[in-house]
Design brief:
The complex is a heterodimer of chains A (115) and B (116). Chain A has 115 residues and is mainly β. Chain A is built from no helices and eleven strands. In chain A, strands 2, 4, 5, 9, 10 and 11 form a six-stranded mixed beta sheet that branches. By secondary structure, chain B is an all-beta fold. Chain B is globular. The termini of chain B are far apart. The chains are: A mainly beta (115), B mainly beta (116).
């Protein structure tokens, strides 16, 4: 069973609109990763968050880890067709501080951007 | 830095046949991971290596699955007596254990297996 819940499962947005994807865990997140995947391809690393309250941005994508470290959000500003794909959150050893070993992933959020 | 390379990209086989996939990690990445992904799901961990040592195996990795990383560089994943339930995308990732990019896993494009 998935230990990371992602919401929504899918969404369609008009180009230029903002959107948010959430990733929730029942255990403390000590290392939270966001990846993007195009259908049938590998995962592309976006960002890694480790500290409660941490926020990172790259181009128009911002990811945050909440203070309690049980939820992360990914926010895209002014979406473009190039943002379309599957967004996956992953965490290493939920509830522990161990890094570097297996990642547990959410089921993914499918994003479509209408132009 | 050419990224993680996986071969073949696609494999179609008949039930009962053996298949082998290869993964070439980013050079100097001493950790290498194998995951399996089915449609509509996130990747599921199979196993990982630090250098040539296999440090963890998932319960998903039945006796029909074996992975090796003989010289701590490339890795192979073999599935014996394939079953239709083995059809999936097999993803390889690698990561360094030190430096600014430590513990970030970089993924290959995957090998898609179809068992007929």
């Amino acid at each position: 069973s998935q230990e990371l819940e992602q919401s929504p499962q899918s969404l369609i947005v008009q180009e230029g609109k903002n959107l948010t994807i959430n990733c929730t865990s029942s255990k403390t997140l000590y290392g939270l990763y966001w990846y993007k995947q195009k259908y049938g391809e590998g995962l592309i690393f976006l960002m890694m968050l480790q500290k409660g309250g941490e926020e990172k941005s790259h181009e128009k994508i911002t990811a945050k880890l909440d203070e309690k470290k049980q939820q992360s959000s990914l926010h895209i500003t002014a979406s473009q067709p190039s943002h379309a794909g599957i967004y996956l959150c992953g965490a290493s050893k939920l509830g522990t501080m161990e890094y570097g070993n297996k990642l547990v992933f959410g089921a993914g959020t499918i994003l479509r951007v209408k132009s | 830095d050419t990224g993680v390379s996986q071969n073949p990209r696609h494999k179609i086989t008949k039930r009962g046949q053996n298949v082998t996939f290869r993964c070439d990690p980013i050079s100097e990445h001493n950790r290498l991971y194998w995951y399996r992904q089915t449609l509509g799901q996130g990747p599921e961990f199979l196993t990982y290596f630090q250098n040539e040592a296999q440090l963890e195996k998932s319960r998903l990795l039945s006796d029909r699955f074996s992975a090796e990383r003989p010289k701590g560089s490339f890795s192979t994943l073999e599935i014996q007596r394939t079953e239709q339930g083995d059809s999936a995308m097999y993803l390889c990732a690698s990561s360094p254990t030190s430096g600014r990019l430590a513990n970030i896993q970089y993924f290959g494009a995957g090998t898609r297996l179809s068992v007929l």
